Amino acid sequence: MTDGDDDLNAAYALKTPEDSKRLYGAWAESYDTGFADELAYRLPEHVAEALAARSPNGPILDIGAGTGLVGLALSALGLGPVDGTDISQEMLDKAAQKDVYQRLFTGDMTKRLPVNDGAYNAVVSSGTFTTGHVGPEALDEVLRIAATGALIAISISEAHWEAAGFRSKFDSLVGKIHDFELVPVQIYGAEAKHEHADDRGNIALFYKA
Hints:
- The termini are far apart.
- The protein has a single domain, classed as Rossmann fold, CATH 3.40.50.150.
- It is 32% helix and 26% strand.
- It is α/β, with parallel strands linked by helices and 209 residues long.
- Strand 4, helix 7 and strand 5 form a beta-alpha-beta unit.
């Protein structure tokens, strides 16, 4: 088992926002090389590509921006401007070094973000909506900060789709969202050789009504 595996298992074990702050604050320095590169983490690119496939307008908010991997992928696809928010300031400090975000700010999705209603024409999130991080109840906050007609792309691990209540939450959003699509993706690249290498995810892709 590599250090990247250890960090990933610790992330899956998170229970509270305070746990997230501690883990990701300590993980920030090695996240890109010790996790994303070492474990062939491909989810940020998949999420960015799913959003791009529907030609979104900016501004875009990256929720759970971390070290900026989604922002980097969006920039490579010519999408923007992009703002980013994360519970960890240390992660955002690393994201700032990539120079792809217009604005970065700390925020806790289990509470209210420092964002006006309807501020963003697109919202994207990779690896944040899951157990121990942000649950399905936070989708209400996503819809609050999204403009009418905004395009939203959120990754949810296959293991948590039903078990954590995401399916039932989306069922309850009928009339509030439209053109919903669930895009299956492989979280890690074909070259991955670790215990989570076969993990799969879903990208929930939809518009705010």
